[in-house]
């Protein structure tokens, strides 16, 4: 497959999910748009490292690196939170439209998203990729550059910390899983 055609196809297929992933990480619609564009600029530059069988994971890895570079740059000048709040999917305004239906009912999803802001970036990323984007363990391994054991342990710890936060709020543990 022609690499240029492949990049066009990747853009059409993943621009929305990359935008929402970056929005969840940075909390700003305009910054997420900029980071999405930067992701595809870097993908164009590094298209030679792309392999058909791992396209989605490769793009999310590029997006995460773009976000981390931006975050580090911002840290030099001022302290900013990793995430001000998770997106309200039905209220979002984006040139890319709305994401797929939420996996959780509306009320629980909002409460859960409020809790997620208290997790470290690596926990938020792994929960987002697994629960919202439906990544397999193999895809998460590629996107976050972790071993399978690291993915499983980190996901377990992230869920455990999230459950602990939920219990502090008086929620039933079962509502968080």
Automatic annotation (TrEMBL):
Belongs to the sigma-70 factor family. ECF subfamily. Keywords: DNA-binding, Sigma factor, Transcription, Transcription regulation. It comes from Candidatus Pristimantibacillus lignocellulolyticus. The keyword Transcription applies. GO terms for molecular function: DNA binding; sigma factor activity. GO terms for biological process: DNA-templated transcription initiation. SUPFAM superfamilies: Sigma2 domain of RNA polymerase sigma factors, Sigma3 and sigma4 domains of RNA polymerase sigma factors. InterPro entries: RNA_pol_sigma-70-like (IPR039425), RNA_pol_sigma-70_dom (IPR014284), RNA_pol_sigma-M_bacilli (IPR014296), RNA_pol_sigma70_r2 (IPR007627), RNA_pol_sigma70_r4_t2 (IPR013249), RNA_pol_sigma_r2 (IPR013325), RNA_pol_sigma_r3/r4-like (IPR013324), WH-like_DNA-bd_sf (IPR036388). Residues 110-162 form the RNA polymerase sigma factor 70 region 4 type domain. This is Sigma-70 family RNA polymerase sigma factor. Residues 10-76 form the RNA polymerase sigma-70 region domain. It holds the Pfam family Sigma70_r4_2. The lineage of its organism: Bacteria, Bacillati, Bacillota, Bacilli, Bacillales.
